[in-house]
Amino acid sequence: MKLTAKTDIEAPASFVYAALIDHAAWEREIIRRGAEIDRPADMPLTGVGAGWNLRVPFRGKVRKLQVRIDEMTPDVRLVLGIDGQAIEGSSVLELLPMSPRRTRMRLALDVRPKTLAARLFLNTLRLAKGRVQVRLEKRLQQMGRRIEERQASATV
């Protein structure tokens, strides 16, 4: 299943990229949302190959996922790989400078099932793709607003 969303952020592309690779901030955000996170000992702390093990409560069960950085192009692109028991996929975040102080962030999410149950779940999501798309766009806009707030507080 493929989903895309985009949002415009009132911040330079370099600042947005720096916010996207701020691992400590993302780890705190994940914990605030009720998930557990830890870093595997065999992965680097930063850069390509860095990764995290997540335990996310979803639909009454704890789902285990491993997220890793597959590709990094400074100020342009960040690719995350996702691997779980039932799904695998990738998330591509691309930054397009619109002006020196405005950046468009585009997210492309591709999720593939590994099991029959996951295939059935993704098929039900396809039926509700409009609502899922709206929720994804809303989350991306919220993320953009948080980055704008960080940028505004950094310049004061």
Task: Give a concise summary.
The chain is of the alpha+beta class. It is 37% helix and 42% strand.
Task: Name a few traits of the molecule.
single chain, 156 residues, alpha+beta, 7-stranded antiparallel sheet, 4 helices, 42% strand
What does this structure look like?
The chain has 156 residues and is α+β, with helices and mostly antiparallel strands. It has one domain: START domain (Alpha-D-Glucose-1,6-Bisphosphate, Chain A, domain 4, 2-Layer Sandwich), CATH 3.30.530. It contains 4 helices and 7 strands; from the N terminus they run E-H-H-E-E-E-E-E-E-H-H. A 7-stranded antiparallel beta sheet has the order 1-7-6-5-4-3-2. A hairpin with a 2-residue loop joins strand 3 and strand 4. The longest helix has 27 residues. The model has no long low-confidence stretch (mean pLDDT 91).
> What fraction strand?
35-45%
Structural class: alpha+beta
- Under CATH, the topology is which? Alpha-D-Glucose-1,6-Bisphosphate, Chain A, domain 4
- What is the level-2 CATH architecture name? 2-Layer Sandwich
Name of the CATH superfamily: START domain
Poorly predicted regions are: none
Oligomer: single chain
Q: What is the averaged pLDDT score? A: 91
Distance between the termini: 42 Å
Q: Can you give the helix content as a percent range?
A: 25-40%
Shape: globular
Strand arrangement in the largest pleated sheet? 1-7-6-5-4-3-2
Which sheet architecture does the biggest sheet show?
Answer: 7 strands, antiparallel
Q: How many domains make up the 3D coordinates?
A: 1
User: Radius of gyration, Cα only, in angstroms?
Assistant: 16 Å
Counting DSSP H or I runs of 4 or more residues, the number of helices is: 4
